Each structure stands twice: as structure tokens, then as C-alpha cells.
């Protein structure tokens, strides 16, 4: 297909999506980009005044991305010097987020403008949520209580400070990035460290309910990476807060967006539309790539945002699988196609990328690769060498330490599918 033909297709698709097209300079404060499908969200954002953690609601704990047996296997592999966990652990331990002298920087209100300008607590919140998760993993692996105290101290600092929620143009996606990661740390600490008091756990649950959910539950008709990570944050909060209604709502939002994140030829001449939003934006600067199996919705925008959407989609599927729900089965062909499509342009494969597209390495793919390659025994010939060369993965937004937690883990600790 020629560049002119692609441009014409891009014009046709983008013209259908004009109402959701981003303004020059990005979203501005006051712009309503919420998804009409979630205008009424049947979940509560009111605090629980009891001062006690929520009652059990049938969830597996810990059960956000990882389970208890999986954490124990990671510990054993690191102690034995088994790769890829050995190198991944060393990378985590030497990272600034894992430093024993790490200090939190909580804010009463997190204000994030377009492209985080202004940045009033945005990067601080991201770093602190990532640090809490890093320290929780280090505590589990090493048994050093200093890490446990650090993780709890970071989380308590934020639950005792954040009262004004998230504001300005990037409020929703900012809440999704931190809201996806906080529960990972909280799950590990609540169920592996008895010194985190019930009162503090309850306070943290209330923070997630009152300071994060209001920015998340109405979704977005902006690019797919945002609603993918919003659904992840909602699902993760639902698990940690033992709130079945919140968890189910996050799954609903995920199902409304996941099919629209990756194109398959079986979709027909046009990609699947996200629920509530009409056609998504597949082009950039008037050009739309040829629709081929595995093309991610934001590929024409840049490699980073496409990877963030992929990660959010997979993370929800992984946490759901930890809870006995197989969402992978609903989008498996799309996930595998996306991995193989991207991998052909990444080292060591390094095929020439299509015109106007770029492909870079990111700290993701490991969770999906583990599911399809190690659990289901599928061959991914293009992604396999990319995974090997990309290890150990680090941290970028909600993409955190995937080699350590999922590299070659297979089905350890997974419950049966309900």
C-alpha cells in the first residue's frame, strides 16, 4: 500500500473520529473527555467511617498481578541465583526506588496539567507509588524489615496527606498511573507484614476510594492508553479494597476498551470501536498506518503510548487471572499479534519499520509472554529473542519489574478458572 493510499485511509478513519480528536496542545483543564458509557457509575466513592478494613469479598490475596506462591518462588529463585530473577532483583535493589533511605513526598492535592505542566506532585506521586511497590517486593525477597517499614511509611504518608484528589487536564491519567501501582504494594504488605495496622489499612483503602476512584470511574474517550490504565487502577483498587462492585466495574470498562486497542484483519476494514466513544484515533498528523494484524491503536503516535496501552490491557487480564477470571481468552489473539508485530522491528530482529512509525524497547511484554509462552506453550518466534535481550526490565509508569515478577513463572499459584 502506498503512502497516498494510507493517507486516504487515515483521512477517512480520522474524519469519523473528529469529535474525539485531541486539540492542538493536548487536553486542557475543564475539557470533558469522559466516556458517555460510564456517565453513571454504579460504585460508591464515599469513605468508610468504620476505621476498619473492608470485610472479605471472596478475592484471592495477595492477588494484584502476583500471588503468594509466586512471591515465594521469586524469593527462592533469587536466593538460588536463578535467572532471570537474579539479575532482575539486582537491578531492583540498586535502583533509587529501592533505596533504604528513600523518602516519600506526599501532597494534599496532585495537580497535573497538559504534559504534566504544571507538575505539582505528579512525578512525586508516581515515584512514591513505584517505590512502595519496589520496597514491598524487596521486603518479600530479602526478609529485611527495613524495606517493609519503608513501604508502609510511604503509603501511610500519602493516605494521611492526600485530601484534594487530582486536578487539571491530566488528572484522570495521573490517578490511573498511581492508582494502578499503589494496590500492588498494598496487597503485598497487608498479607505479608502484620505490623501494618488495621487502622492504617482502612485509611489507605479510604484514600483509594475517595481520592482516586472519582477521577477514574467515568472513563475517557481520549487515546486508549488512558482508559486501559484507568480500568487497571479500578480493578486493582477493587481487589485491595475487597469491593466487588468496583472490581466488576473495572472489568466492564476493560471489556469496553480492550478489543479496540489492537487491530486484527478479522475486524474488517475498520478497527473495533471502543464502547461509548465512536472510532478511536489510529492516525497521527494526517497519516494512518496500514491496518495489519497486531497494530496497536497508538502506534502512529509513538512507541511509548502504544506500550502503555498494551501493558494496561495485559495487567488487567493478569490480575483477573489471579482471581480466577480468564480475560486473556477474550483478547488472546490480539495480544499475541501485537507482540509479534512489534517484535519484528525490535532488536535483535530489527526489520525496517514502516514509514513514519517507530518501535522501541519498553519495560513490558514479560507478563503477556509468560502467559502465552510459559503457561499456554505457544511459540512467539519474534518476541522470544526480544524478551531475552530486554531483560531485566525496569520501571516506567505502571510498567514495573515484570522480569522479576513474571519471567518464566508459568502458572505458579494460579487458581482454577471459575
Protein structure class: mainly alpha
Shape, principal axes of CA atoms: globular
User: What is the makeup of the main sheet?
Assistant: 3 strands, mixed
Distance between the termini: 45 Å
Give me the strand/helix succession: HHHEEHHEHHHHHHHHEEH
Tally the helices.
14
- Low-pLDDT sequence parts: 1-22
Radius of gyration: 20 Å
Nearest-integer average pLDDT = 94
Helical residues, percent:
40-55%
The proportion of residues in beta strands is under 5%
Number of strands: 5
The spatial strand order of the largest sheet comes to: 2-1-3
Description:
The structure is a single chain. The relative contact order is 0.14. The radius of gyration is 20 Å and the shape is globular. The chain starts with a helix and ends in a 12-residue tail after the last helix. It has 14 helices and five strands. The model is unreliable at 1-22 (pLDDT under 50). It is an all-alpha fold and 418 residues long.
Amino acid at each position: 500500500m502506498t503512502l497516498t493510499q494510507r493517507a486516504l485511509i487515515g483521512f477517512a478513519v480520522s474524519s469519523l473520529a473528529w469529535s474525539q480528536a485531541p486539540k492542538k496542545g493536548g487536553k486542557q483543564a475543564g475539557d470533558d473527555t469522559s466516556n458517555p458509557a460510564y456517565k453513571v457509575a454504579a460504585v460508591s466513592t464515599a469513605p468508610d467511617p468504620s476505621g476498619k478494613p473492608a470485610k472479605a469479598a471472596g478475592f484471592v490475596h495477595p492477588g494484584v498481578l502476583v500471588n503468594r506462591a509466586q512471591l515465594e518462588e521469586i524469593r527462592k529463585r533469587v536466593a538460588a541465583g536463578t535467572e532471570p530473577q537474579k539479575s532482575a532483583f539486582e537491578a531492583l535493589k540498586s535502583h533509587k526506588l529501592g533505596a533504604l533511605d528513600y523518602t516519600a513526598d506526599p501532597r494534599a492535592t496532585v495537580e497535573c496539567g497538559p504534559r504534566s505542566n504544571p507538575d505539582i506532585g505528579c512525578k512525586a506521586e508516581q515515584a512514591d507509588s513505584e517505590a512502595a511497590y519496589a520496597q514491598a517486593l524487596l521486603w518479600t525477597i530479602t526478609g529485611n524489615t527495613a524495606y517493609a517499614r519503608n513501604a508502609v511509611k510511604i503509603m501511610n504518608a500519602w493516605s494521611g496527606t492526600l485530601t484534594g484528589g487530582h486536578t487539571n487536564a491530566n488528572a484522570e491519567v495521573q490517578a490511573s498511573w498511581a492508582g494502578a501501582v499503589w494496590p500492588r504494594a498494598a496487597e503485598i504488605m497487608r498479607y505479608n507484614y502484620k505490623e501494618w495496622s488495621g487502622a492504617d489499612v482502612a485509611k489507605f483503602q479510604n484514600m483509594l476510594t475517595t481520592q482516586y476512584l472519582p477521577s477514574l470511574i467515568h472513563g475517557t474517550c481520549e487515546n486508549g492508553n488512558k482508559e486501559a490504565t484507568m480500568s487497571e487502577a479500578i480493578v486493582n483498587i477493587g481487589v485491595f479494597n475487597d469491593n466487588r462492585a468496583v472490581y466488576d466495574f473495572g472489568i466492564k470498562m476493560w471489556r469496553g476498551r480492550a478489543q479496540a486497542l489492537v487491530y486484527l484483519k478479522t475486524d474488517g476494514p475498520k478497527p473495533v470501536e471502543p464502547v461509548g466513544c465512536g472510532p478511536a484515533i489510529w492516525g497521527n498528523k494526517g497519516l494512518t498506518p496500514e491496518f495489519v494484524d497486531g497494530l496497536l491503536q497508538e502506534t502512529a503516535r509513538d512507541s511509548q503510548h502504544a506500550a502503555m496501552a498494551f501493558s494496561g490491557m495485559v495487567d488487567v487480564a493478569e490480575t483477573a487471572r489471579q482471581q480466577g477470571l480468564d480475560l486473556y481468552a477474550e483478547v488472546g489473539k490480539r495480544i499475541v499479534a501485537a507482540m509479534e508485530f512489534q517484535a519484528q522491528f525490535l532488536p535483535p530482529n530489527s526489520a525496517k519499520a514502516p514509514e513514519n512509525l517507530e518501535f522501541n524497547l519498553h519495560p513490558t511484554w514479560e507478563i503477556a509472554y509468560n502467559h502465552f509462552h510459559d503457561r499456554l506453550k505457544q511459540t512467539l518466534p519474534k518476541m522470544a529473542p526480544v524478551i531475552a535481550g530486554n531483560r531485566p526490565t525496569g520501571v516506567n509508569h505502571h510498567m514495573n519489574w515484570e522480569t522479576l515478577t513474571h519471567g518464566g513463572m508459568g502458572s505458579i499459584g494460579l487458581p482454577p478458572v471459575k
